[in-house]
Amino acid sequence: MERSKSQEEHCNRKRRQQDKRFYFFYKIITASCIQDRRIKIPNKFIRIFGKELSDIALLKVPSSSKEWRVDVKKDEGHIWFQSGWHEFVKYHNISVSHLLVFRYDRNSSFGVVIFDTRASEIGYECETNDLEEPCIEIGTQTSSENENSEEDSMTITVESDYTNQETEAREFSSLQEEQLANLVFKPRRPVSFADKERAIAAANKFTSKKQFCIVTMRPSFVHKRFVLNLPIAFSKHLQNGDYDVTLRGSDRQMWKVRGAGQPQFRLRAGWKEFVLDNGLEEDDICIFEIVSMKHKQLKVSIFRIQPERSDN
């Protein structure tokens, strides 16, 4: 027998009063989330907390003190994050098929954990000087109403008492619990010290008569910002100015990447495509070798921290 509205409101009120619980929901990013510059909050979450949300919500990612202000738009029983959402998406380089897990911390504040298309949590930018020396250890879419829907969301509650941690799936649609677990809780296996030593040793065996440098991939190189800073010593061998360089993979495939900067040369536009096409991850090692100054061409050799990962 269906519960009356008064009974449901009574249950929701009791749940709001249970301060020992954290409330989560996830959203899989669709094209409309980016194109429409807004994202819809799941109905299940709205029924419980919709009335207490203010006109402004605060979003915060791990490892950062920065809070992002986004407008909360309420319309006929639906709630959207709107103005400010696009800036959050752009800054964190969120794209289609990324998965975001929202933790509601009350008072219209949300913690947000971001997973990339490989189901690995992204690296979050620390609030430090952007100019840093790298570690050199050697399709058509459907309508927006259908895309940005409940099909891509779920609400979860988690007890805060770790001795009695209990996860309860509150709302499912097209995704099953096992599928979500594979997405969120099974990133690449932890990187061991032996993994790092093996990759470094392999890269150290590299020799060439041409100028080259060895760069260990940092979070900002392969996530979010997708900007690679080449070492200053190596950058001295590159031409000054803002121009396209060609990156050549081991299979001789080519990528056009925009580079600029002195004394430290940066790879910017186009570098993201190289990273994604080659499946680069944090701690992988790349060797950049100047093949032709005339044609502004660099050969890139990749030494993976986890060699079992496929070379795309």
From TrEMBL:
Q: Which CDD domains match?
A: B3_DNA (cd10017)
What's in the GO CC field? nucleus
Q: Name one Pfam family in it.
A: B3
Record keywords? DNA-binding, Nucleus, Transcription, Transcription regulation
Q: Which residues form the TF-B3 domain?
A: 24-118, 213-306
Keyword Transcription regulation listed? yes
Q: What is this protein called?
A: TF-B3 domain-containing protein
The protein's organism comes out as Aquilegia coerulea (Rocky mountain columbine)
Subcellular location(s): the record lists: Nucleus
Q: Which domain of life is it from?
A: Eukaryota
Query: What GO molecular functions are on record for this protein?
Result: DNA binding
Q: Does the keyword Nucleus apply?
A: yes
